[in-house]
Amino acid sequence: MHDRPDPCEILTAAAAFLRRELIPALPPELSFKTRILANALDLVARQTAADGAAADGTHARLAGLLGREGSEEELAADLARRIEEGAIALTDPALIDHLWTTTLAKLAVDQPNYASYRAETGAAGLQE
């Protein structure tokens, strides 16, 4: 167990500092590049926060879908093979649930402001 601030809080604070203090004081070209950096810090913070829960959920769904244990990489490769061979139909409700849930988890990290993601999950938009 680590003390606070945790890595997500540090990254979030750094991004907020860039947006609040640095970007307004920079010339346009550097302001744009610094905004990209702030967005990257936000993405890493979201990824760090989501890693454990998303990985556990993905592994559990894959194991349930395939009826066996293994590493997430092994299970994902097995799933791809079974889909390719037709052993798991693209219309399988468990497959659809897995793919949909995985996609939403990835969007939560990569594109949380994406309108369709927000509409599907009821998530509020994040500040830019």
What does this molecule look like?
The model has no long low-confidence stretch (mean pLDDT 89). The two termini are 31 Å apart. 73% of the residues lie in helices and 0% in strands. It has 128 residues and is an all-alpha fold. The protein has one domain (7-121). Helix 2 packs across helix 3 (72-85) and helix 2 packs antiparallel against helix 4 (93-110). The chain is elongated and about 60 Å long. The protein contains 5 helices and no strands. Pfam families: DUF6285. InterPro entries: DUF6285. Residues 24-114 form the DUF6285 domain.
Name the descriptors:
mainly alpha, single chain, 128 residues, DUF6285
* Helical percentage: over 70%
Question: Averaged pLDDT, please?
Answer: 89
Low-confidence stretches: none
Coarse morphology:
elongated
The figure for the number of domains is 1
- CA-CA gap between termini: 31 Å
Task: Name the structural class.
Answer: mainly alpha
Approximate strand percentage? under 5%
Q: What is the radius of gyration?
A: 19 Å
Domain DUF6285: 24-114
InterPro entries: DUF6285
Organism: Sphingobium wenxiniae (strain DSM 21828 / CGMCC 1.7748 / JZ-1)
Protein name: DUF6285 domain-containing protein
Explain the layout of strands and helices.
Layout lengths: L6 H16 L5 H39 L5 H14 L7 H18 L4 H7 L7
Helix pairs in contact: 1-2, 2-3, 2-4
